[in-house]
Design the sequence.
């Protein structure tokens, strides 16, 4: 089994692709790029998308980026790229003690929004998963404009400014 969201929580998970809940996407203006979009996408996450077939890590990134990366050992690569690009918002589990978090969030992000409660991600057909994600989630803003968008999003949670 490949790593998917929650795969470290339960071996029962049989999905590799999980969609960001539409209420999260609806809280933001349209993004320019989603470099790790699912192949099947019942709702749009950005004007332009790259799927696993395109390998978005190797493509050029332009504009404000939405990044709900594949969860697992490669998540760090996506956050490193977000840190370098410095214009966008990422969604990951709030594993604040990890090396990845210290390397690419605490030492690179502009602000954070710790989401209240646990998200229910969606299957690629758009249906909501019955179980929640199994862990708390955080939205990470890179760059001042993305930080302002995150702060103004009205997503319930705790906003934390890291740098201005």
Sequence:
């Amino acid at each position: 089994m490949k790593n998917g969201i929650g795969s470290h929580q339960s071996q029962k998970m049989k999905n590799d692709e999980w969609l960001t809940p539409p209420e999260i996407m609806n809280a933001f203006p349209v993004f320019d790029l989603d470099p790790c979009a699912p192949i099947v996408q019942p709702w749009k996450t950005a004007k332009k998308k790259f799927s696993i077939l395109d390998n978005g890590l190797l493509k050029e990134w332009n504009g404000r980026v939405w990044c709900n990366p594949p969860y697992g050992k490669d998540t760090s690569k996506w956050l490193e790229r977000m840190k370098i690009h410095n214009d966008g918002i990422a969604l990951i589990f709030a594993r604040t003690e990890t090396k990845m978090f210290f390397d690419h969030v605490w030492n690179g992000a502009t602000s954070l929004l710790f989401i209240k409660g646990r998200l229910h991600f969606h299957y690629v057909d758009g249906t909501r998963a019955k179980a929640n994600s199994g862990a708390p989630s955080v939205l990470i803003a890179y760059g001042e404009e993305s930080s302002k968008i995150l702060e103004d999003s009205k997503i319930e949670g705790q906003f934390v400014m890291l740098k201005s």
